[in-house]
Design a protein that fits this description.
The chain is an all-alpha fold. It has one domain. Helix content is 68%, strand content 0%. Helix 8 packs antiparallel against helix 9 and helix 13 crosses helix 14. The longest helix is centred in the C-terminal third of the chain and has 48 residues. It is globular, with a radius of gyration of 22 Å. Keywords: Acyltransferase, Membrane, Transferase, Transmembrane, Transmembrane helix. This is Acyltransferase.
Length: 392
């Protein structure tokens, strides 16, 4: 899912810091923990790519939809075609929850020391260029190769370019866009904290207040509270925020408590998703995978992976967002057309490889140049707005 460059930017000069031991937090004179210098987190780029591949394999060979007789993708249950792959791919949907945790971590990291204007610009240039291309690309594929997915009306496709279609009750061009609605609500909530200036205390309070709202929303029967609190995704983002505070300031009992609560609430949400949506994986297996991932993130947060500095992971991380946006509807449509031409396992691998290449092309020739244009334009617009306010 969308994220920023995985680089920590301490708000104080490094020479002013006196790093503690590896796992100890040092309180400032006013009781505020001080940030610690950290290198770029290459390991998160790697986990992000693994999560994207998990989701892609799941959609191609592990969903309840593709395991039905006479399904439009494979024409027969995928568990009959490649049973071993199906039993593994059935758990790939957990990649989405992994994305949410990483998003909480990286958004908090990228916003530290920035104001709301910088936060807004960074989110626009990160989210929209690849998304606009994905909407156009997927629509073109569904027009050219009909029969697997219903094509939306032009007015609905156009609304999809705003990324606000879910809030308007309009279908997504591609079903995977549902996660963007959760991301957008998280960004809007976190913007309130960014506007006041991020501190350890404010982020902790935000986690506690948001967690309480997410806990109360399902029983409150108040639609607006449920919309804002986002109980289905809140605890994953909160876990990411707590992990980043561990990374930046060191561990303490309060942060471990927030992370433990996020795990407990998250395992419940995993079970609900299995019962209501997925229907193909066990709760125990899903919780085990999610727990292993959280432990890996704890290791990253506490510095255990700081020695991993493989440059290719940066490129790998940059492919994940375009890959996630483009693979599902277009990929299953391609499989529908080619399913009788080669071994099913080879076909899945080939389609994923093709989308990885396409994702690199989108990143290189769409995301980067369009993001540059958008950034310059938005910064000029905000400068003009400031000047107009001063003159007025």
């Amino acid at each position: 899912m969308p994220s920023s460059t995985v680089t920590d930017r301490p708000t104080q000069p490094l020479r002013a810091l006196r790093p503690p031991g590896r796992h100890a937090a040092v309180p400032a004179s006013a009781g505020q923990p001080r940030p610690r210098p950290r290198p770029r987190l290459y390991a998160i780029d790697g986990i992000r790519l693994v999560a994207a591949l998990m989701v892609a394999v799941h959609h191609f060979a592990g969903t309840y939809r593709v395991d039905q007789p006479h399904n439009l993708v494979w024409d027969r249950p995928v568990s009959d075609i490649m049973p071993s792959v199906f039993h593994v791919a059935a758990y790939g949907w957990i990649g989405v929850e992994i994305f949410f945790v990483i998003s909480g971590f990286v958004i908090c990291m990228s916003c530290w020391g920035r104001g709301p204007r910088q936060f807004f610009v960074s989110r626009v240039i990160r989210l929209y260029p690849a998304y606009w291309f994905a909407v156009a690309f997927t629509t073109a594929v569904l027009v050219a190769l009909p029969g697997v997915w219903d094509r939306l009306r032009l007015r609905e496709v156009l609304l999809n370019f705003t990324m606000l279609q879910t809030g308007s009750g309009v279908q997504n061009v591609d079903g995977v866009y549902w996660t963007l609605w959760s991301e957008l609500r998280f960004y809007l909530l976190f913007l309130l904290v960014v506007a006041t200036g991020l501190t350890y205390r404010k982020v902790v309070v935000f986690c506690c207040v948001w967690g309480a709202a997410a806990m109360l929303a399902p029983v409150a029967e108040f639609p607006l509270l449920e919309l804002v609190a986002n109980p289905e995704g809140a605890w994953y983002f909160i876990a990411g925020l707590a992990l980043y505070l561990m990374h930046r300031f060191g561990q303490d009992l309060l942060l471990w408590g927030i992370l433990a609560m996020a795990w407990l609430m998250g395992q419940r949400e995993l079970g609900i998703r299995i019962d209501e949506v997925e229907h193909v994986s066990s709760w125990r297996g899903s919780v085990l995978i999610f727990t292993v991932f959280l432990l890996a993130m704890v290791a990253i947060a506490l510095g255990a992976t700081d020695r991993i500095r493989w440059k290719w992971l940066v490129t790998a991380g940059s492919l994940t967002y375009p890959l996630y946006l483009m693979h599902y509807a277009a990929g299953t449509t391609v499989i529908n057309r080619l399913r009788d031409t080669m071994d099913a396992r080879v076909l899945v691998a080939a389609v994923i490889a093709g989308f990885l290449v396409l994702s690199w092309l989108v990143h290189r020739f769409v995301e980067r140049p369009v993001a540059g244009v958008l950034k310059r334009g938005l910064e000029a617009s905000f400068a003009r707005l400031r000047n107009a306010s001063a003159a007025g």
